[in-house]
């Protein structure tokens, strides 16, 4: 019995090791190329977020990367790229819209998505091993491709779930902070063009939900919460 389970245990341990080293490398890279966010124009909205959360400070940093993005690190820090800050400094993005990005990334932290993705990643590796073995026998050559496609679709759906949860957290936090959901909605309405457009992957293989669906979910949450 143990011998039968050994390949799966080895895959599980290898996946955990890969995640651990990947996370450590990411944290080193972020620390080396980032600095705390200290922009005076953002101080009022950050103060509102802090007050709504009841915390003395927010771990928000600016990452020296030209692309337009935000991310939550496994250690709980939140990062905005220099590309996002450039849009803010040029007046293309407002302070309240920047606050909505920070609120979204804080949602990832509060929901424990980094730990969840580690669990998802290890499970997907084991499932991939099983599918490759089964489908590879049933459909030679194409079976491996199909197994990888299934795993990619599962990973995309799990990632999209996390994005919806982070969006909902951000909406609730922005409402509580007195900022409201409109900056979040207005940024999403322009985000694809600001970020250079969506990738070529179909929606069911994308790590993020379609923008229209995210906007609809946010509006539905606002209606439900304000009507309660």
From TrEMBL:
Binds 1 zinc ion per subunit. Gene3D superfamilies: Metalloproteases ('zincins'), catalytic domain (3.30.2010.10). The chain crosses the membrane at residues 126-151. One of its GO terms (biological process) is proteolysis involved in protein catabolic process. It holds the Pfam family Peptidase_M48. This is Putative metalloprotease. The keyword Kinase does not apply. Keywords: Hydrolase, Membrane, Metal-binding, Metalloprotease, Protease, Transmembrane, Transmembrane helix, Zinc. The lineage of its organism: Bacteria, Pseudomonadati, Pseudomonadota, Alphaproteobacteria, Rhodobacterales. Residues 38-220 form the Peptidase M48 domain. Its cofactor is Zn(2+). One of its GO terms (cellular component) is membrane. GO terms for molecular function: metal ion binding; metalloendopeptidase activity. Belongs to the peptidase M48 family. It comes from Rhodobacter viridis. PANTHER family: METALLOENDOPEPTIDASE OMA1 (PTHR22726), METALLOENDOPEPTIDASE OMA1, MITOCHONDRIAL (PTHR22726:SF1). InterPro entries: Mito/Outer_Membr_Metalloprot, Peptidase_M48.
């Amino acid at each position: 019995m143990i011998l039968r389970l050994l390949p799966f245990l080895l895959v599980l341990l290898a996946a955990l090791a890969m995640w651990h080293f990947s996370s450590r490398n990411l944290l080193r890279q972020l620390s080396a190329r980032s600095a705390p966010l200290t922009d005076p124009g953002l101080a009022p909205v950050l103060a509102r977020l802090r007050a709504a959360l009841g915390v003395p400070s927010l771990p928000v940093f600016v990452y020296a990367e030209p692309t337009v993005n935000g991310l939550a690190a496994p250690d709980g820090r939140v990062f905005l790229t220099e590309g996002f800050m450039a849009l803010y400094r040029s007046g293309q993005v407002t302070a309240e819209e920047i606050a909505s990005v920070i609120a979204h990334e804080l949602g990832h932290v509060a929901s424990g998505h980094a730990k969840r993705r580690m669990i998802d990643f290890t499970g997907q590796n084991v499932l991939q091993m099983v599918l490759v073995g089964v489908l590879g026998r049933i459909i030679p050559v194409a079976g491996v491709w199909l197994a990888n496609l299934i795993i990619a679709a599962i990973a995309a759906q799990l990632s999209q779930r996390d994005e919806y949860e982070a969006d909902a957290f951000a909406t609730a936090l922005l409402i509580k902070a007195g900022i409201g959901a409109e900056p979040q909605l207005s940024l999403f309405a322009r985000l694809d063009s600001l970020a250079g457009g969506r990738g070529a992957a179909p929606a069911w293989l994308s790590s993020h939900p379609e923008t229209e669906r995210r906007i609809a979910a946010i509006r539905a949450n606002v209606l439900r919460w304000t009507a309660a």
